[in-house]
Amino acid sequence: MKIAMIAPPWLSTYPGCYYGIENVVHNLTSSLTDMGHEVVLFGVGGSTTKASKRYWYHKEDQYHHIHRPWYEALPIISSHILYSLNIIRNAGDFDIIHDHNSFTGPSMMAFANGDLPPILHTLHEPFTDERKVVKGLPDNRMLFEEMKHARRLFFTGVSESQLRGMPKELKRRMVKLVHNGVDPSDYLYSDKKRDYYLTVGRVANDKGQGIAAKLANELGVKYKFAGTVGSLIKTKKQLEKELEEPCEEASNSPDFRYFRDKILKYLVPGQIEYLGAIYGQRKMKLFAEAKAFLAPITWEEPFGIAIIDALACGTPVVAMRRGAFPEIIEHGRNGFLADTEAQFKKYMQRVDEIDPAECRRSVEEKFSARKMAEEYIKRYHEVIKRVSA
């Protein structure tokens, strides 16, 4: 097949990618190429991949614009998508488009006609929870309710949990979900662990690093956490500067305020430490040597690539029983699922019961990039068949 893979324009893709959607796009593109398919990647400059060809409208990552007002950020993603669609249409020989641009992608492709091939959009974001709508958050389901006439556009999800909130109007445009996958060979595996717990991911209230820091403080154990704080802070030095004299962007960032109000008080050099964003071999080593990965999330996370990263390194996961985590973590085999902070604290002290080899095996069995690619090929054929019917 000839596949047009349209990644978001915010971040580049590369082996061992730090970011969730970009990690998925890289692994999928590489696996499909290894299987003999022709994949053309539409991303941003600097992306590295096995794709047969790469195109980009923006030469550099655009993430520093992602949180701007819609009238400032929308032209960035819209130009990226339109540029991609123009190339695809002019080529005239693609079998399918696989889009990963949340909300904007399907909005722009909903009324695609015969000039474009069939389209599969992977839903990476959760549907809006009723409780959040009551609190004033806009309901993103209204967008998908209007997709009922999108004749060439179909959707898939990444977890059963994510799709529970799916609007009924979208169901007839759905194909079976595909779990995200990683390439286990990209990961450093170790069954020899050091005496620290780890969390890697954006630092935010819904990720729960404040809870992990609090529990680590109570237990007197070492805890390291890494990730960006908002769109501005990527290093420990930047954080220290903003804590001392915050700029307007930092002051207005809920993630920065969360760090300052809920985490800062627990930081102790040599015990509870913020590492900044980490990449490459340093990231792999931290994952592989961690006693356990902690994920005390406070929201219904639609998947969670970071916990797959940990398991691939042979590192057990202690997580809240929320979102897609029960679909990934087998309680007692590759980690533990907690319903309360008290349970979470208890399971932190039981991670030595988990065999690192079983953690790695659980990824190889269910969440490998090859398995993900094989499942997507089935979905591509289904979408093409349904469009042709």
In words, what does this structure look like?
By secondary structure, the protein is α/β, with parallel strands linked by helices. Helices cover 39% and strands 13% of the residues. The chain is built from 16 helices and 12 strands. The strands form 2 sheets. Strands 3-2-1-4-5-6 form a 6-stranded parallel β-sheet, with helices on both faces. Strands 9-8-7-10-11-12 form a 6-stranded parallel β-sheet, sandwiched between helices. Strand 11 (317-320), helix 13 and strand 12 form a beta-alpha-beta unit. Helix 1 (20-34) crosses helix 16, helix 7 packs parallel to helix 10 and helix 12 crosses helix 15. It is globular and about 65 Å long. The two termini are 19 Å apart. The mean pLDDT is 94.
The secondary structure category is alpha/beta
Distance between the termini: 19 Å
Order of helices and strands: EHEEHEHEHHEHEHEHHHEHEHEHEHHH
| Average pLDDT taken over every residue | 94
Total beta-strand segments: 12
Q: Segments where pLDDT lies below 50 for 5+ residues?
A: none
Radius of gyration: 21 Å
Sum up the overall morphology in one term: globular
Mind sketching the topology for me?
Layout: E1 2-6, H1 20-34, E2 38-43, E3 53-56, H2 70-91, E4 96-99, H3 104-109, E5 119-122, H4 130-134, H5 141-145, E6 153-156, H6 160-163, E7 197-200, H7 209-219, E8 223-226, H8 236-244, H9 248-251, H10 254-263, E9 272-274, H11 280-289, E10 292-295, H12 305-312, E11 317-320, H13 325-328, E12 335-338, H14 341-348, H15 356-366, H16 369-388
Parallel strand pairs: 1-2, 1-4, 2-3, 4-5, 5-6, 7-8, 7-10, 8-9, 10-11, 11-12
Helix pairs in contact: 1-16, 7-10, 12-15
